[in-house]
Amino acid sequence: MRAILDDRQRAHDPKHFMANGARLANPEQPRRIEVLKAGAEAAGCRFEAPQDHGLGPIAALHSAEYLVFLQTIHERWSRIEGASDEVIPNIHPDRRTASYPRSAVGQAGFHQADTSCPIAAGTWQAAYWSAQSAIEGADLLSSGEQAAYVLSRPPGHHAFADLAGGFCFLNNSGIAAERLLRAGKRPAILDVDVHHGNGTQGIFYERADVLTVSLHADPERFYPFFWGHGAERGEGAGRGCNLNLPLARGTGDDDYLNTLRTAFEHIRAFGTDVLIVALGLDAYEKDPLKGLAVTTPGFNRIGSAIAKLGLPTLLVQEGGYLSDELGQNLTSFLRGFQDA
Ligand SMILES: [Zn+2]
Protein backbone atom coordinates (compact mmCIF):
# COMPACT_ATOMS: atom_id res chain seq x y z
CA MET A 1 0.00 0.00 0.00
CA ARG A 2 1.19 3.52 -0.74
CA ALA A 3 1.92 5.63 2.32
CA ILE A 4 2.65 9.32 2.90
CA LEU A 5 4.99 11.01 5.37
CA ASP A 6 6.97 14.23 5.39
CA ASP A 7 10.11 14.45 7.51
CA ARG A 8 9.32 18.05 8.45
CA GLN A 9 6.60 16.65 10.75
CA ARG A 10 9.42 15.96 13.25
CA ALA A 11 9.88 19.70 13.85
CA HIS A 12 7.16 19.67 16.53
CA ASP A 13 8.72 18.35 19.73
CA PRO A 14 6.41 19.27 22.64
CA LYS A 15 7.93 19.04 26.10
CA HIS A 16 5.10 19.18 28.60
CA PHE A 17 1.41 19.02 29.30
CA MET A 18 -0.68 19.18 32.44
CA ALA A 19 -2.47 16.06 33.68
CA ASN A 20 -4.47 16.20 36.91
CA GLY A 21 -2.58 19.38 37.78
CA ALA A 22 0.85 17.78 37.38
CA ARG A 23 3.35 18.85 34.74
CA LEU A 24 4.25 15.70 32.81
CA ALA A 25 6.27 14.84 29.71
CA ASN A 26 4.13 15.29 26.60
CA PRO A 27 3.41 11.84 25.11
CA GLU A 28 2.97 13.11 21.53
CA GLN A 29 6.68 12.69 20.78
CA PRO A 30 8.41 12.83 17.37
CA ARG A 31 9.72 9.35 18.08
CA ARG A 32 6.20 8.11 17.35
CA ILE A 33 7.08 8.71 13.69
CA GLU A 34 9.94 6.17 13.72
CA VAL A 35 7.86 3.57 15.52
CA LEU A 36 4.77 4.01 13.33
CA LYS A 37 6.82 4.15 10.13
CA ALA A 38 8.55 0.88 10.98
CA GLY A 39 5.18 -0.65 11.87
CA ALA A 40 3.67 0.39 8.52
CA GLU A 41 6.70 -0.82 6.55
CA ALA A 42 6.48 -4.19 8.28
CA ALA A 43 2.99 -4.45 6.76
CA GLY A 44 4.34 -3.61 3.29
CA CYS A 45 3.72 0.16 3.13
CA ARG A 46 6.00 2.15 0.82
CA PHE A 47 6.43 5.75 1.95
CA GLU A 48 6.60 8.81 -0.28
CA ALA A 49 6.67 12.53 0.55
CA PRO A 50 3.69 14.78 -0.25
CA GLN A 51 3.68 17.68 -2.66
CA ASP A 52 2.94 21.13 -1.31
CA HIS A 53 -0.74 21.79 -2.04
CA GLY A 54 -0.64 25.18 -0.34
CA LEU A 55 -2.90 26.71 2.29
CA GLY A 56 -6.11 26.53 0.24
CA PRO A 57 -7.20 23.02 1.28
CA ILE A 58 -6.35 23.79 4.93
CA ALA A 59 -8.19 27.13 4.90
CA ALA A 60 -11.20 25.30 3.48
CA LEU A 61 -11.80 24.12 7.07
CA HIS A 62 -9.77 26.37 9.36
CA SER A 63 -10.35 30.10 9.82
CA ALA A 64 -7.79 32.53 8.43
CA GLU A 65 -7.58 34.12 11.89
CA TYR A 66 -6.57 30.78 13.41
CA LEU A 67 -4.00 30.08 10.68
CA VAL A 68 -2.38 33.47 11.29
CA PHE A 69 -2.30 32.63 15.00
CA LEU A 70 -0.59 29.27 14.44
CA GLN A 71 2.02 30.82 12.17
CA THR A 72 2.88 33.84 14.33
CA ILE A 73 2.10 33.09 17.97
CA HIS A 74 5.42 31.53 18.96
CA GLU A 75 7.42 34.50 17.81
CA ARG A 76 5.06 36.98 19.46
CA TRP A 77 4.97 34.91 22.68
CA SER A 78 8.75 34.77 22.90
CA ARG A 79 8.86 38.59 23.08
CA ILE A 80 7.02 38.49 26.43
CA GLU A 81 9.56 38.88 29.19
CA GLY A 82 9.96 35.66 31.18
CA ALA A 83 7.60 33.67 28.95
CA SER A 84 8.00 29.90 28.61
CA ASP A 85 9.69 28.36 25.55
CA GLU A 86 6.39 26.85 24.47
CA VAL A 87 3.09 28.68 24.10
CA ILE A 88 0.78 27.21 26.74
CA PRO A 89 -2.42 29.06 27.63
CA ASN A 90 -3.22 30.09 31.17
CA ILE A 91 -6.73 31.36 30.44
CA HIS A 92 -9.61 29.62 28.64
CA PRO A 93 -12.58 31.73 27.58
CA ASP A 94 -15.19 28.94 27.39
CA ARG A 95 -18.01 31.41 27.16
CA ARG A 96 -16.94 33.71 24.38
CA THR A 97 -18.12 37.09 23.28
CA ALA A 98 -17.65 38.46 19.78
CA SER A 99 -14.42 40.21 20.73
CA TYR A 100 -11.00 38.88 19.82
CA PRO A 101 -7.98 39.75 21.97
CA ARG A 102 -4.90 41.38 20.46
CA SER A 103 -2.50 40.07 23.09
CA ALA A 104 -0.57 36.84 22.60
CA VAL A 105 -1.74 35.57 26.00
CA GLY A 106 -5.37 36.25 25.17
CA GLN A 107 -5.10 34.64 21.75
CA ALA A 108 -3.41 31.54 23.19
CA GLY A 109 -6.41 31.13 25.47
CA PHE A 110 -8.78 31.75 22.58
CA HIS A 111 -7.21 29.18 20.24
CA GLN A 112 -5.85 26.47 22.58
CA ALA A 113 -8.46 24.38 24.33
CA ASP A 114 -6.10 22.80 26.83
CA THR A 115 -2.44 22.51 27.84
CA SER A 116 -1.61 19.46 25.72
CA CYS A 117 -0.99 21.40 22.51
CA PRO A 118 2.06 23.57 23.29
CA ILE A 119 3.33 25.62 20.35
CA ALA A 120 7.09 25.98 19.79
CA ALA A 121 9.18 27.25 16.87
CA GLY A 122 8.66 24.11 14.75
CA THR A 123 4.99 23.45 15.48
CA TRP A 124 3.45 25.23 12.50
CA GLN A 125 5.84 23.57 10.06
CA ALA A 126 5.10 20.11 11.45
CA ALA A 127 1.33 20.64 11.53
CA TYR A 128 1.41 22.06 7.99
CA TRP A 129 3.22 19.02 6.57
CA SER A 130 1.07 16.64 8.56
CA ALA A 131 -1.95 18.22 6.86
CA GLN A 132 -0.24 18.23 3.44
CA SER A 133 0.34 14.50 3.88
CA ALA A 134 -3.40 13.94 4.43
CA ILE A 135 -4.22 16.07 1.36
CA GLU A 136 -1.79 14.02 -0.72
CA GLY A 137 -3.45 10.82 0.52
CA ALA A 138 -6.88 12.20 -0.44
CA ASP A 139 -5.59 12.98 -3.93
CA LEU A 140 -4.25 9.44 -4.29
CA LEU A 141 -7.77 8.15 -3.70
CA SER A 142 -9.25 10.70 -6.10
CA SER A 143 -6.90 9.44 -8.78
CA GLY A 144 -8.11 5.86 -8.36
CA GLU A 145 -5.96 4.36 -5.59
CA GLN A 146 -8.13 2.01 -3.50
CA ALA A 147 -6.34 2.63 -0.22
CA ALA A 148 -3.49 4.64 1.28
CA TYR A 149 -1.99 5.18 4.73
CA VAL A 150 -1.03 8.66 5.92
CA LEU A 151 1.39 9.01 8.82
CA SER A 152 -0.01 12.33 10.02
CA ARG A 153 1.76 13.65 13.06
CA PRO A 154 0.94 15.81 14.95
CA PRO A 155 -2.54 14.25 14.87
CA GLY A 156 -5.69 16.21 14.04
CA HIS A 157 -9.06 14.97 15.25
CA HIS A 158 -9.30 17.20 18.36
CA ALA A 159 -8.70 20.36 16.30
CA PHE A 160 -11.80 22.47 15.55
CA ALA A 161 -11.98 25.15 12.86
CA ASP A 162 -10.29 27.70 15.16
CA LEU A 163 -9.15 25.69 18.16
CA ALA A 164 -6.18 23.43 18.93
CA GLY A 165 -6.46 20.80 21.65
CA GLY A 166 -5.51 17.27 22.66
CA PHE A 167 -2.11 17.28 20.84
CA CYS A 168 -3.86 18.46 17.61
CA PHE A 169 -3.56 21.67 15.55
CA LEU A 170 -4.94 21.05 12.04
CA ASN A 171 -7.70 18.50 11.48
CA ASN A 172 -5.96 16.20 9.01
CA SER A 173 -8.84 13.72 8.61
CA GLY A 174 -11.33 16.53 8.15
CA ILE A 175 -9.10 18.31 5.65
CA ALA A 176 -8.84 15.05 3.66
CA ALA A 177 -12.64 14.64 3.77
CA GLU A 178 -13.19 18.19 2.51
CA ARG A 179 -10.65 17.61 -0.27
CA LEU A 180 -12.47 14.44 -1.37
CA LEU A 181 -15.85 16.15 -1.12
CA ARG A 182 -14.65 18.89 -3.47
CA ALA A 183 -13.42 16.19 -5.85
CA GLY A 184 -17.03 15.02 -6.14
CA LYS A 185 -16.98 12.25 -3.54
CA ARG A 186 -19.32 11.50 -0.65
CA PRO A 187 -17.01 10.93 2.31
CA ALA A 188 -17.57 9.44 5.74
CA ILE A 189 -15.07 9.69 8.59
CA LEU A 190 -14.85 6.70 10.91
CA ASP A 191 -12.88 7.61 14.03
CA VAL A 192 -11.50 4.61 15.94
CA ASP A 193 -9.15 6.58 18.22
CA VAL A 194 -9.86 5.90 21.91
CA HIS A 195 -10.81 9.56 22.30
CA HIS A 196 -13.88 11.11 20.75
CA GLY A 197 -13.07 13.07 17.59
CA ASN A 198 -14.55 16.28 18.97
CA GLY A 199 -12.85 18.64 16.52
CA THR A 200 -14.04 16.62 13.55
CA GLN A 201 -17.57 16.49 14.96
CA GLY A 202 -17.50 20.23 15.60
CA ILE A 203 -16.35 21.07 12.07
CA PHE A 204 -19.05 19.03 10.31
CA TYR A 205 -21.80 19.21 12.96
CA GLU A 206 -24.24 21.30 10.93
CA ARG A 207 -23.44 19.71 7.58
CA ALA A 208 -25.06 16.82 5.73
CA ASP A 209 -22.30 16.30 3.17
CA VAL A 210 -19.78 14.49 5.42
CA LEU A 211 -20.86 11.72 7.81
CA THR A 212 -18.90 11.62 11.07
CA VAL A 213 -18.85 8.46 13.20
CA SER A 214 -16.73 7.95 16.31
CA LEU A 215 -16.18 4.94 18.61
CA HIS A 216 -14.44 5.95 21.82
CA ALA A 217 -14.17 5.55 25.57
CA ASP A 218 -17.24 7.05 27.23
CA PRO A 219 -16.50 10.77 27.79
CA GLU A 220 -18.47 10.80 31.05
CA ARG A 221 -15.10 10.12 32.71
CA PHE A 222 -12.60 10.47 29.88
CA TYR A 223 -11.13 13.16 27.63
CA PRO A 224 -12.62 15.17 25.90
CA PHE A 225 -15.43 15.14 28.55
CA PHE A 226 -17.64 17.83 26.95
CA TRP A 227 -18.21 16.06 23.64
CA GLY A 228 -18.73 12.52 22.39
CA HIS A 229 -21.99 11.61 24.11
CA GLY A 230 -24.59 9.53 22.31
CA ALA A 231 -27.18 12.32 22.18
CA GLU A 232 -24.95 14.48 19.95
CA ARG A 233 -26.41 13.64 16.54
CA GLY A 234 -25.73 16.79 14.51
CA GLU A 235 -27.77 19.97 14.15
CA GLY A 236 -29.69 21.75 11.41
CA ALA A 237 -28.90 20.22 8.03
CA GLY A 238 -26.45 17.91 9.79
CA ARG A 239 -29.00 16.29 12.10
CA GLY A 240 -28.51 12.54 11.94
CA CYS A 241 -25.13 12.86 10.19
CA ASN A 242 -23.06 12.51 13.36
CA LEU A 243 -22.97 9.23 15.26
CA ASN A 244 -21.25 8.78 18.61
CA LEU A 245 -20.75 5.27 19.95
CA PRO A 246 -19.29 5.67 23.45
CA LEU A 247 -17.91 2.47 24.97
CA ALA A 248 -17.46 1.53 28.63
CA ARG A 249 -13.90 1.89 29.92
CA GLY A 250 -12.02 -1.36 29.40
CA THR A 251 -14.14 -2.59 26.46
CA GLY A 252 -12.32 -5.42 24.65
CA ASP A 253 -12.16 -6.81 21.11
CA ASP A 254 -15.51 -8.62 20.80
CA ASP A 255 -17.68 -5.80 22.09
CA TYR A 256 -15.68 -3.30 20.05
CA LEU A 257 -16.24 -5.27 16.85
CA ASN A 258 -19.95 -5.62 17.59
CA THR A 259 -20.27 -1.86 17.99
CA LEU A 260 -18.35 -1.34 14.76
CA ARG A 261 -21.25 -3.03 12.95
CA THR A 262 -23.56 -0.18 13.98
CA ALA A 263 -21.03 2.27 12.56
CA PHE A 264 -20.98 0.33 9.28
CA GLU A 265 -24.80 0.45 8.97
CA HIS A 266 -24.69 4.24 9.08
CA ILE A 267 -21.73 4.44 6.69
CA ARG A 268 -23.57 2.28 4.14
CA ALA A 269 -26.87 4.14 4.59
CA PHE A 270 -25.14 7.47 3.96
CA GLY A 271 -24.23 6.34 0.45
CA THR A 272 -20.56 6.72 1.32
CA ASP A 273 -18.25 6.25 -1.65
CA VAL A 274 -14.97 7.00 0.11
CA LEU A 275 -14.04 6.27 3.73
CA ILE A 276 -11.55 8.15 5.88
CA VAL A 277 -10.45 6.24 8.96
CA ALA A 278 -9.16 8.43 11.78
CA LEU A 279 -6.79 5.70 12.86
CA GLY A 280 -5.90 6.10 16.50
CA LEU A 281 -4.20 3.11 18.09
CA ASP A 282 -4.69 4.28 21.66
CA ALA A 283 -7.66 1.93 22.20
CA TYR A 284 -4.87 -0.57 22.95
CA GLU A 285 -5.07 -2.33 26.31
CA LYS A 286 -1.58 -1.16 27.35
CA ASP A 287 -1.69 2.34 25.85
CA PRO A 288 -0.46 4.85 28.44
CA LEU A 289 -3.76 6.76 28.18
CA LYS A 290 -5.76 3.62 29.24
CA GLY A 291 -9.29 3.92 27.91
CA LEU A 292 -10.25 0.66 26.20
CA ALA A 293 -8.71 -2.82 26.02
CA VAL A 294 -8.27 -3.70 22.35
CA THR A 295 -5.50 -6.29 21.85
CA THR A 296 -2.86 -6.54 19.14
CA PRO A 297 -4.83 -9.33 17.33
CA GLY A 298 -7.94 -7.20 17.89
CA PHE A 299 -6.48 -4.46 15.67
CA ASN A 300 -6.07 -7.08 12.94
CA ARG A 301 -9.78 -7.93 13.20
CA ILE A 302 -10.77 -4.24 13.17
CA GLY A 303 -8.65 -3.61 10.06
CA SER A 304 -10.18 -6.64 8.37
CA ALA A 305 -13.74 -5.61 9.26
CA ILE A 306 -13.20 -2.09 7.87
CA ALA A 307 -11.70 -3.43 4.64
CA LYS A 308 -14.72 -5.70 4.12
CA LEU A 309 -16.89 -2.60 3.72
CA GLY A 310 -15.32 -2.59 0.25
CA LEU A 311 -14.89 1.20 0.06
CA PRO A 312 -11.88 3.17 -1.17
CA THR A 313 -10.26 3.98 2.16
CA LEU A 314 -7.80 6.58 3.42
CA LEU A 315 -6.18 5.62 6.71
CA VAL A 316 -5.06 8.76 8.57
CA GLN A 317 -2.96 8.29 11.69
CA GLU A 318 -4.36 9.92 14.83
CA GLY A 319 -3.34 8.93 18.39
CA GLY A 320 -1.50 5.94 19.79
CA TYR A 321 1.32 6.57 22.21
CA LEU A 322 4.64 4.98 22.91
CA SER A 323 4.32 1.50 24.30
CA ASP A 324 6.37 -1.56 23.37
CA GLU A 325 3.62 -2.67 20.99
CA LEU A 326 2.66 0.60 19.22
CA GLY A 327 4.40 -0.38 15.96
CA GLN A 328 3.11 -3.95 16.13
CA ASN A 329 -0.45 -2.69 16.57
CA LEU A 330 -0.18 -0.67 13.38
CA THR A 331 1.31 -3.64 11.55
CA SER A 332 -1.51 -5.81 12.86
CA PHE A 333 -4.21 -3.35 11.73
CA LEU A 334 -2.68 -2.86 8.28
CA ARG A 335 -2.18 -6.60 7.71
CA GLY A 336 -5.80 -7.27 8.66
CA PHE A 337 -6.92 -4.45 6.36
CA GLN A 338 -4.85 -5.62 3.39
CA ASP A 339 -5.47 -9.36 3.80
CA ALA A 340 -9.21 -8.77 3.68
ZN1 LIG B 1 -6.50 9.56 21.18
UniProtKB/TrEMBL annotation:
Q: Where is the Histone deacetylase domain?
A: 27-335
The UniProt entry, under Pfam families, shows: Hist_deacetyl
Q: Which SUPFAM superfamilies match?
A: Arginase/deacetylase
Respond yes or no to whether keyword Hydrolase is given for this record. yes
Name the keywords, alphabetized: Hydrolase, Metal-binding, Zinc
Cofactors demanded by this protein: Zn(2+)
Origin: domain of life:
Bacteria
Provide the family line.
Belongs to the histone deacetylase family.
What is the protein's name according to its record? Answer: Histone deacetylase family protein
Q: In the record, what lineage is assigned to the organism producing the protein?
A: Bacteria, Pseudomonadati, Pseudomonadota, Alphaproteobacteria, Hyphomicrobiales
